[in-house]
Amino acid sequence: DQAITLGAAVFLFVGLTLLLRFTRLGLVMRTSVDRPSLAALRGTNTGRISAIAWIMSFGLAAVAGVLAGPIPGFGLTSDGYTVALFVAATAAIFARLRSIPIAFAGGLAIGAATNLATAYLNSSYLGSVGGWIQNVSGLQASLPYWILLIGLAIFAVERGRRAGVTAEASPPHDYLAGLSPWRRRLPWIVAGLAFFIYSMGPINPIWRQTVEVALATGVVFLSYTVVTGLGGMVSLAQTAFVTSSAVVMGYLINMHGWPFLPALLVGAVVAVLLGIVIALPALRLGGIPLALATLALALLTFNVVFEIPSLTNGSVGWTINRPKLGPLDLTNERVTIIVLFLVVLLGLWVVTNLQNSASGRAMTAVRSSEPAASASAVSPVVTKLTIFAVAALLAGVGGMLLAMVSGNIQGQQYPPNPLAFLWLATVVVFGVRRPAGALLAAVVSVFFQAILTSGIHIGSFGWNGTTQTLIPELLFGAAAIGLANNPDGILAQVGAIRYRRRRAKASTATASPTPALESEELQVTRLPAVVGNGDGRGVAVTESPVLRLEGIHAGYGEVEVLHGIDVDIPRGSIVAVLGPNGSGKSTLCSVIGGLLEVSQGRIVYDGVDVTTMSPHDRARNGLVVVPESRGIFPSVSVDENLQLWLPRSSDKDEVYQRFPNLAVRRRLPAGNLSGGEQQMLSIGPMLVRPPTVLVIDEPTLGIAQMVSSEIMTNLDELSASGTTVILVEERARSVMSIAHWVCTLYRGRMLWFTDKDHVNDDVLASAYMGGTIVPESIVRPERSGLPT
Fold first, then answer.
1. What is the DSSP letter of 308?
2. β-pairing verdict for 324-325 and 328-329
3. What number is the average pLDDT over the span 465-490?
4. Which of 99, 265, 284, 285 has the most crowded Cβ, counting Cβ within 10 A?
């Protein structure tokens, strides 16, 4: 068995390494991870490549499961799965998720170290120290978690440049922004009152306790809103905060006779201190490594600390009776519910005010860019520690309330696997960035579980529940599918539906013969246009334009950026698209390349309607876009960047002859090149294998004047070979020497399109300022139907 396992592992390692490094499939897989949108613009079907990667990973996992099956105590067990998860994740992080050989070697090393430690960390080899290790329950079994933590601390720190890198996740759209405060809060007030009245009514004691559990769980779930929703960090250690605070409270009450409130305060302090300890990896880690580090710490706490009999009272646990706090007798269930409601409202108030406070803005700044936050006098260290401390406090208070409601707390009551994943996923499904989403997640999940196990009876209708465990999993999977459609969760999805309904009613009520867009255009009638008043129309200068944009409207979400762009691009020419920042130039490039769908209008390329054509199909048919931030894949080598567009070695050699600097650096990652060299690498393949249309966005941005002139010469040469070049620029003077036609955009509308000979400095300055100077001779659009 061991020989077969090792042989299969080596075979798969060698095969996977060869596949990823020396085949075209491996190259497109790596480039699709590096920059998915650019890969699509280079003709890669990223959806298909992603599917292939998933299938391969499933196959590898299946082989691992088959090979692990005969191993005693490992195959087909949840503990074995957890160990495998940690060993695999640790090995992959050793390799920074980039190197198959390092990951493979790391996996072998971790496996060997674990076996050696299991065999030799005992009294026979280490004397009294080994005996102590043997006697501490769970210490030897937790060795993989220690290895993971050490490995993460050494290998998982990101050592690349981080300045200017922002979080990809943007704040969720506020669909209630246009409503008055009372309309925003009224549905939640009504729902809360209804839930409270139900809780105080003559209901079954089982359901009243379910209400109590739901409210206490809501406090725990609010901690995810702080650490993940606001801080942008994934923590899988909330079960440790819940258990530690409740166990300490139970220990003080039962062993030392402490009153309830002082024991609760000490338990809260313990949770905060543990939160700060678990936050220490967050000072160096982020993303997947941080999530694994917090889970490892939670598992260590669960397997070692919560196994100490003197602390947890063994399998019996501690009994926690409901106290009397002055006039509040918590032995009365209705009084308990009132107190829990007040605690939930207090937690909701704390989280909401934190989001809107200066501390909340500091957390958002650190989440977006730590260097930028530091430059603004915001300490990332203090901010991260504060996030974890507040989250741990909420989770700890919720854990102690859960212990009081249930009347007991055991050390093994809340295992991190699977509760850590289940709790986080539940909150994310409903909306991790909204405090109301956390509370709703708690109520729905607790009641749903109670209904499944106990059933429900209303009048003559009755259902006794089920023991089928697949139902929650299937419904959770359905919720995950909904989450894929709206990553901000169910609350955001409902808010979006209601928002669209309000807009539809408002548009119906205010319907008029004049469309809304026309009224917007009337606001810019001072802008010069080819015809009419800023209607965005361009030019038809040839009977068969290579590219025609007809009434293009496009934008991002509810914000429209392009308002009716209508232009023909002459074949074989260089068209300079000018305009100030925010005029819609990069959006126009994304529309032409297919990265951004149009809301109105159509795109005709070489006589074919490509409006709905995918980006990779457009690229394969000769419509190529080089985006603003350099058209390169920074993590792969210069040679592999060229190979993606030029598979033949002779074609790559031609690029190296044109640009000798690239030849010298052909084995380096493209991200190590200078700005000018990166732009050479972007344009070089197009010079050897010219596309029909090349759209290049800001090619001279951030590079020296000498390199800029060389790039312009190359584009002029490309045009001479028959390629139509659409050159998007802000710096007009750098492109006027090679352009044949010039058009300007201003606030998403085309001002004019004309021969470059009719453009002077006054006209350009006016266009950038939104003025009224129009070129003396403008080619009129033949299809506009308007007077010339």
1. -
2. antiparallel
3. 71
4. 285
20-33 mean pLDDT? 91
Name the residue type at position 453.
T
Supply the pLDDT for residue 697.
85
**Rounded distance between C-alpha atoms, residue 122 and residue 128, angstroms:** 8
Q: And the tokens for 63?
A: 């082989």
Task: Provide the pLDDT for residue 7.
Answer: 92
Cα 682 to Cα 688: distance, rounded to the nearest angstrom: 12
CA 362 to CA 373: how far, in whole Å? Answer: 7
Cα–Cα distance for residue pair 78/243, rounded to 1 Å: 21
What is the rounded CA–CA span in Å between residue 183 and residue 177? Answer: 10
| Tens digit of each residue's pLDDT (9 = 90 or more) over 581-596 | 888 888 999 999 999 8
Residue in the structure block whose two tokens are 């004691």: 205
8 A C-beta contact, residue 655 and residue 683: no
Among residues 591, 580, 656, the alpha carbon closest in space to that of 623 is found at 591
Tracing tokens 């943007």 back to the chain, one arrives at 170
Distances (CA, A) of 273 to 237, 266, 401, 692: 13, 11, 19, 63
Closest CA to 683 of 623, 626, 734: 626
- pTM recorded for the entire structure: 0.77
| Cα gap 75→63, rounded to integer Å | 12
Q: State residue 234's pLDDT score.
A: 86
Of residues 705, 708, 664, 665, the one with CA closest to residue 683: 708
pLDDT confidence of residue 525: 25
Distance of CA 171 to the CA centre of its chain: 11
**Other residues' Cβ atoms within 10 Å of the Cβ of residue 66:** 12
* 577 within 8 A of 732, measured Cβ to Cβ: no
Distance CA 121, CA 673 (A): 50
Contacts for 713-719: CB closer than 8 Å, 24+ residues apart: 713/738, 714/658, 714/683, 714/687, 715/574, 715/683, 716/574, 717/687, 718/683, 718/686, 718/687, 718/690, 718/694, 719/572, 719/573, 719/574
Tokens standing for 270? 């313990």
pLDDT in tens, 401-456: 999 999 999 988 898 877 888 888 889 888 888 898 899 999 998 988 888 887 77
Going by C-alpha positions, the residue among 484, 489, 449, 495 that lies closest to residue 469 is 449
- Give the alpha-carbon dihedral of 727, 732, 736, 740, to 10 degrees: 40
Task: Report yes or no: 204 and 450 within 8 Å, Cβ to Cβ.
Answer: no
